[in-house]
Amino acid sequence: MPATYDFIIVGAGSAGCVLANRLTADGKCRVLLLEAGGSHKRFFVNMPAGLGELYYDTSLNWCYETEADQQMGGRTDFWPRGKVLGGSSSINGMVYIRGQHEDFDAWAQLGNSGWGHDDVLPYFLMSEDNDAGADTWRGGGGPWKISSIKGREQHVVKLALESARAQGWRDNPDFNGAEQEGVGLYQFSFRKGRRTSSATAYLEPAMKRPNLVVESGALATRILFEGRTAIGVEYRRGGQTVQARAGREVIVSGGTVNSPLLLQQSGIGPGALLGLHGIDVVQDSPAVGENLQDHVYTGLIFRTSVPTLNDGINSWPKLLLAGMRYVLTKSGPLTFGINQGGAFVRTRETESRPDTQLYFIPLSFQAPPNGERRGLRAHGFSGFTINASPCRPESRGHIRIRSADPEAPPIIHRNYLSTEGDVRVMVDSLRLVDQISRTAPLADVIEERLFLPEGPLSDKQLERWARQTGRTTYHPTSTCTMGVDPAHSVVDPRLRVHGVDRLRVIDASIMPLIVSGNTNAAATMIGEKGAALVLADNR
Asked: Out of 5, 233, 300, 454, which could bridge 32 as a Cys pair, Cβ 3.0 to 4.6 Å?
């Protein structure tokens, strides 16, 4: 007989770990948490600067590849996604950004009652433990450790911030405060030299509870139904096919790629797609896998006359020394992320709010040759990068199953820069990057702009560069979008899947519109609010 639980959660990622914690807190519910990956307790996972070693690690990372896109020079794109306890929060760059207040108000204006900024702010606050202390906009005492790097940023980042201010942009000491607009240092999800992930913040405490069962190495293959009611999950673990029953609800938290794939494999999705692969239709839901939104980035790279992070890690002896310093003292260049400073600004004065995000990165690196997957390595010279990532893309892509085999890689069509508006914002964003690089004091330490000709760049040159080099910022959302119309959304405002019973999706895939900035904080908030909805509906 299959084991029976009150709730089955599929995916121990940014939202799934939150759910596992909150649903088991009172001891009344028995919960099964399924995760296809393994433990997060790995050296390079916990080390804040270990991202380069995780980038192509198939034991921790789904290592997805998109379809070739002619709009992007016929290139595919590599999409890292966490395959580990903590999900992508265990392998990401740790920048902690919630998004603009208007982002969430726009969700509510689309009919998603209860998802405006004033509604979701309490869930952000309850999750956070900001090292600056609690106030109107910052949380204190929550599980998610958030830290400033003020005073520890690289010198070249300070110069970039000064040059950005010279553009007339105001200082912003807290991008998660009253307003997002301005220039400043980023906050990060780490504390005392250790990454904060949903696994460390939420799952580790919950795993001590007898009413939580965590099955790692467990690939969910389909949701089980009786009629139109979800009753459990089938999964593969250790070469065996196992079934588990859910007495109350099945909750899908696989993330923007894996959640729509599991729904489609289970008979919930576009009817024609399911029929093509011989999958019986439980609910013809045309929006499953559609509406894919992501931030695309590109930028400019410079050789500098002042030392950068490159100088501390661009050889094996230097890396070994930095590693020893990290292990022994939890200090040095490996103790925090690379996206140290940046800005949220308007590309044109006519914009009502910031429409692009800039990253000031005291590092430059050489990507491995095509087809070779290994850790990223810093250039052998002092290098600096400024990346631009427009905040609210108009372009929409999709994610679909490739076959009825749950282990087959998905079809990911990103469709970047497919509208005139997206191209315009990207070109204008790169022009702002160029202006900063030509403004003192940063301009005084730049020796060379790499890969592009010196001198002014035309709009055509900048557009060509964006199409040749633009890549994911690792922020995919919206493939199981929330809304009131089942023809154009997958879940309702209480995150229940349209057309079936006892099934929800709770993760970043439900965002109706992508937030302006990094997405992990919002994914955690969705887990917090989603848990509250589940508990309220199952009293």
From this structure: 5
